[in-house]
Amino acid sequence: MDVSQRPEMAMTETELRRRWREGRPSHGVWSLLPGVVTAEVLARTGADHVVVDLQHGAATEADLPGVAAVVRAAGAVPLVRSRSSSFADVGRPLDLGACGVIVPNVRDADHAREVVSACRYAPAGGRSIGRLTGGADQPLVIPMVETASALDDLDALLAVPGVDGIYVGPGDLSLSLGLDGEDRRDDLRAVLSSIIARAVAAGVPVGVHAYDGAAAAAYAAEGATIVTVAVDTVSLGDVMARHLESARGGRAT
């Protein structure tokens, strides 16, 4: 796809929600790099959604209005991983243009209910009126499963009204479960597969964080529909390293 061309059909948060509920995947990219230009380049790749990472990325809340606007203009849906799961940090991106939030460190079903409330105006929730630009009337709400406590309460969490899907963070989950060693890779993979299966059985969309298309495809083959195909920093480093190797005649540095 020519990244200078706008897609003919724009994706919306309503269409994402419908796709996931029908068991059809969306394919998105994850952004740790700041800036409107970065966001536009990522969105014009043909991605269905772009996730701006405020928790671990270099972007800030001040970047969000411009970033969200160019992502939408390019035909993708701007989502944000919030800085934390606190009430203010969940709601703030929604006031600044995000059409949904992926919320880290959700402890259990009760905590997920608090997250949903932070995304909904009264009487459905406790979100304060103050949206400045863009955004959505019914933003997507996606708690992360990345702690042992969330896994222990997974069935109840999957049943929380207003949760549009769950997103699994393998790195933090492996630490929480004591499965972070290389020798525990297969054990962790079995846990991830189990989470996908349980979410699919409950009719709840699920995604697992991935850094490349091969890993993303493997999760999708098991039923994941919130598909992250690449992370900008990882892909940029990989591509530049390959170009350097090619220019040096295949010589390793």
Summarize the model shown.
With about 250 residues, this protein is an alpha/beta fold.
Structural commentary:
The model has no long low-confidence stretch (mean pLDDT about 95). The longest helix is centred in the last third of the chain and has 18 residues, at about 185-200. The chain has helices spanning about 15-20, 35-45, 65-75, 85-95, 110-120, 150, 155-160, 170-175, 185-200, 215-220, 230-245; strands at about 25-30, 50-55, 75-80, 100-105, 140-145, 165-170, 205-210, 225-230. The chain is α/β, with parallel strands linked by helices. The chain is globular, with a radius of gyration of 18 Å. The chain has an 8-stranded parallel sheet with strand order 7-6-5-4-3-2-1-8. It has a single domain (about 15-245), classed as Phosphoenolpyruvate-binding domains (TIM Barrel). Strand 2, helix 3 (about 65-75) and strand 3 form a beta-alpha-beta unit.
Provide tags for this entry:
single chain; 253 residues; alpha/beta; TIM Barrel; 8-stranded parallel beta sheet; 11 helices; 42% helix; HpcH/HpaI aldolase/citrate lyase domain-containing protein; HpcH-HpaI_aldolase; Aldolase/citrate-lyase_domain; Pyrv_kinase-like_dom_sf
The fraction of residues in strands falls at: 15-25%
Q: Which homologous superfamily in CATH is the superfamily?
A: Phosphoenolpyruvate-binding domains
Record field, number of beta strands? 8
SS content category: alpha/beta
The third-level CATH topology is TIM Barrel
Write down the overall mean pLDDT.
95
CA distance, first residue to last residue? 32 Å
**Arrangement of strands in the largest sheet:** 7-6-5-4-3-2-1-8
| Main sheet overview | 8 strands, parallel
Q: What order do the SSEs take from the amino end to the carboxyl end, as H and E?
A: HEHEHEHEHEHHEHHEHEH
Shape: globular
Separate helix tally: 11
Q: Indicate the CATH class.
A: Alpha Beta
Count of individual domains: 1
Cα radius of gyration in angstroms:
18 Å
CATH architecture annotation name: Alpha-Beta Barrel
Low-confidence stretches: none
Question: Helicity range of the residues?
Answer: 40-55%
